[in-house]
Amino acid sequence: MEPYILLLVVIVIVGFGIVFKMYATFPPSERKEGFSSPAVSPTDPKCIQRNVDAQVLMRLFPPCEDESRAPTEDATDRSELRLILNKLTCLDADATDAGVGGYNTFKLPYNTSHDAEPIESFIGRCLNNGTKKRDIEIVIDKYDKRGKTLIAQISNRMGMDPKAVQENYNAVVTTTMNTLMNRCLAMRSSLDTPYGPRDPGYSTPYSVDRLAPFN
To answer: Dihedral through CA 106, CA 45, CA 137, CA 167, nearest 10?
Structure first.
């Protein structure tokens, strides 16, 4: 092998070694892994951008400027309403995309005033078709009632008729409800009609099938 070719090979090997050794020191923004379904989504999900009615509500009830310094009742109400809108639109996004673009709901905090259960637990069961119609109704009902209560409180402080924006909120709730009903419902029980060769169908356990007559 020619000396200059050997030198070039050595330089390439040393260069790769330096890159691999310094990889851990690169800023996170420069180390993007190309997974199609990251387990953790961005800190502040942008699901509201998917829904026009949610955007209208956020323009009417923006966060208070003093929220970070001295949260008032109005500031906390607006913050919670923003969180509910994020949850409703992120539920719609995750159920529709099946986690292909990342699970937006993983970063949303649990809040007992409007959550029937942690939202990430619910979307996990949803994507595995593990929810019943009543489960969805309970989750959405809490968001619906709490959101309308917050809208009424904020509107009254602004001197606005809450009924003027209820239609927008109802549209957000209805959109999410329809998505969950179409994507999350558990498969119906097939014991009355065998689903396949491994379905128990009409089979009866031996211990039950051979019971002695009752005297």
So the answer is: 170
Structure tokens at 128: 């595995």
What is the DSSP code (8-state) at residue 65? T
Domain ranges in the chain? 1-32, 38-183
Cα gap 73→79, rounded to integer Å:
10
Place of tokens 């979307």: 123
SS3 assignment, position 33: coil
**CB neighbour burial string for 67-100, b if at least 16 within 10 angstroms, e if fewer:** eeeeeeebbebbebbbbbbbbbbbbbbbbeeebe
Residue 131 bridge partners (DSSP): 185
Distance of CA 127 to the CA centre of its chain: 10
pTM above 0.70, yes or no: no
Whole-number Å distance between alpha carbons of 127 and 186: 10
| Spatial separation of the C-alpha atoms in residues 164 and 93, rounded to whole Å | 26
110-113 LR contacts (CB < 8 Å, sep 24+): 111/80, 111/83, 113/80, 113/146
- Are 53 and 171 within 8 A, CB to CB? yes
Q: What is the largest CA-CA distance in the chain?
A: 102
Amino acid identity of residue 162, one-letter, is: P
Tell me the pLDDT tens digit for each residue of 63-85: 877 655 667 888 889 989 999 99
Residue 47 has a CB neighbour count (10 Å cut-off) of: 22
| Overall size of the chain counted in residues | 215
**CB distance 60 to 154 below 8 Å:** no
Residue 143 CA: distances (Å) to CA of 89, 122, 123: 12, 14, 15
Q: Tokens at residue 29, please?
A: 């923004």
> Is pLDDT at 148 greater than 90 in this prediction?
yes
